[in-house]
Amino acid sequence: MIEESFEAKGKRKRLIEELRSKGISDERVLEAMGRVQRHLFMDDAFLRHAYQDKAFPIAAGQTISQPYTVAVQTILLNVSKRDKVLEIGTGSGYQAAVLAEMGVKVYTIERQRELYRKAQIILNEMGYRIHFFLGDGYEGQPHYGPYDGIIITAATAEVPEKLLKQLRIGGRLVVPRGERDLQVMTLFVRRGEDDYEISNHGNFVFVPMLKGIANNNERD
């Protein structure tokens, strides 16, 4: 783990208390978030704001999610140690780090090469063992499934059937579902081959989920 200042540790502790005051009560999630150095995932221009409960811009026109949002999605996944979770949209890598801190086997897909590379570098430097893929989130990663959980960190009006089918029976998929300006955080629990229990958990705002790999004229 990368060493950090006492100031950063203090700010992160205050962030966790703020999340508690907003109703986040799952201590496993709070403890995991309390160990993740969010400032390492931020662009330099926003470093001093890293422990505010806000979303901030990152590269490729994307954002690092608000900590409250990360907490809500993680709670809805209801993971246990050694669970296998597929993340659609690596982004900064912050959500993947929180899941890894909870002992989850994380498989994460990113369509933007710049974010894919940056997340690999920082998460590896932080000591997390995560499986990275540059690819189309709509396709998922069926070769490594079925998954105990799937988390989608971008907005989509319709959940891809391919992703739902990559859940194990009893598995949970968390997605901000809706149009560009406002989405409903939605939980799908797979109860049978074609049977899903669906519940809604508040309004959020995410960047849209897009198909394909961005900048596909570049080479890795």
Brief write-up:
The chain is α/β, with parallel strands linked by helices. It has helices at residues 6-21, 27-35, 67-77, 94-101, 113-125, 161-164, and strands at residues 56-57, 63-64, 84-88, 105-110, 131-134, 147-152, 167-178, 183-192, 195-204. Strands 5-4-3-6-7-8-9 form a seven-stranded mixed β-sheet. Strands 1-2 form a two-stranded antiparallel ribbon.
Features:
alpha/beta; Rossmann fold; single chain; two-stranded antiparallel sheet
Could you characterize what this model shows?
The chain is of the alpha/beta class and 220 residues long. It has one domain: Vaccinia Virus protein VP39 (Rossmann fold, 3-Layer(aba) Sandwich). Helix content is 28%, strand content 26%. The chain contains six helices and nine strands. The chain has helices at 6-21, 27-35, 67-77, 94-101, 113-125, 161-164; strands spanning 56-57, 63-64, 84-88, 105-110, 131-134, 147-152, 167-178, 183-192, 195-204. Strands 5-4-3-6-7-8-9 form a seven-stranded mixed sheet. It has a two-stranded antiparallel sheet with strand order 1-2. β7 (167-178) and β8 (183-192) form a beta hairpin. α1 packs antiparallel against α2. The longest helix has 16 residues, at 6-21. The protein is globular and about 50 Å long. The model is unreliable at 216-220 (pLDDT under 50).
Strand order of the largest sheet: 5-4-3-6-7-8-9
Element-level helix/strand string? HHEEHEHEHEEHEEE
Using only CA atoms, what is the Rg? 16 Å
Helix content: 25-40%
N-to-C span: 27 Å
CATH fold group: Rossmann fold
Poorly predicted segments: 216-220
Q: Count the E strands.
A: 9
The CATH superfamily label reads Vaccinia Virus protein VP39
Class, according to the CATH hierarchy? Alpha Beta
Strand residue content: 25-35%
- The structural class is alpha/beta
The largest sheet is:
7 strands, mixed
CATH architectural arrangement: 3-Layer(aba) Sandwich
Shape: globular
- Structurally, the number of domains stands at 1
